[in-house]
Amino acid sequence: MLLITLWLSTLAPGWLAGVSVGTLALAIPVQLETASGEQVEGDWAGTTESAVRIQSGSETREIPFDQMVAMRPKSAPDGRIGPTIHVDLVTGTTIAADDVSLTDTKLQIEPRDQAALEVPLDQAGSIRFRAASPATDPQWLGLTEGENRQDLMVIRRGGDQLDPIQGVVLGLNSKTLQFELDGDELEAPLERLEGVVFRTAPREPNATPVKVSDIFGSTWMASQLEPSGDEDSVLVRLPGNVKHSIPLQQIRSIAWTSGRILLADQPPAQRGIELFIRTSIPANLVSEWFGPHAEGQDLIGSAGGSIEFRVESGFETFAGSVQRDSAVARGGSVAVRILVDGDVRWEQTIKDDAPMGFRVDIAGARRVGLKVLPAGDGDVGDQIRFLKPRFLK
């Protein structure tokens, strides 16, 4: 007992204030925002089936999940260099992993400094083995944003070119991908691959009202938080009834939101088109007839067209992909720009039918604009489809 007392006395002042007698659990101060705008501060005390528990002095307060907007540690955790491998699930979760493997029905994922978890293989969207880069991101995101009838093994060629090969994924370990190509089974070394994209079928997005972000770059889109016997962690339930525990000290933020707005469902702040052939038709009719417009969950835009949307508070990412519209039989090159508060944040020239994906930071932005421009070879056939463009929290 004397040795323990002496050891405790050498710790930094104030450390004992964060110790729960009997458990030695670290008390972590957090700040919560409720739907009414109230700011609540206190020490994290875990969750119940329907509420967050906050300790303030001798009082423990329970705040129902349906009244929560956001929660974050008062002292933001230091940024960490996360793992290179990123696993994207079809439900929107992105997991930064040290290792990943798969069997016929399960995908096993090992996040850094967290317990391993298994998810059903039909929940897997893609696995990227290399770090993101400006040279390859549009190509990679273009592949992952689409609907694929077969698995894709994506090889990185010289000049930062990605080459998708259709086939069937048979297995995966830390060194090789087992892949069936035209009836032949082969083992592809991971060092030569950008990643793998799993075949996907059209599906409605799962209800994932809770977004948990950690310090390693993972984003957990959870259907709900679960009661946890460990007050130093948060237990999330992912779609597919997968449960995963995240240490509280690794959490950057938690947001209780639907987290997704399709632009096709939103009224634009403004839209228009500048025709390259002069006409006496009134500008409002030209915009109505030829300007950018929604079609299902997509947006259609022709050369000279522009459309702008307001960004609601709390949304951080603008995501989607763009490709030549399938209605175009033949066309030249066309440039596409994404502007955030008037500044160009993403620009690509579309030369063929391959989709190009984007993820643009819009945190704190007020407006997002889309522009379609001819790329120097005329505007005939320059019609573009933005595939499911959306704001994400």
UniProtKB/TrEMBL annotation:
Residues 257-393 form the Glycosyl hydrolase family 98 putative carbohydrate-binding module domain. It comes from the Bacteria. SUPFAM superfamilies: Galactose-binding domain-like (SSF49785). It holds the Pfam family NPCBM. This is Glycosyl hydrolase family 98 putative carbohydrate-binding module domain-containing protein. It comes from Roseiconus nitratireducens. The lineage of its organism: Bacteria, Pseudomonadati, Planctomycetota, Planctomycetia, Pirellulales.
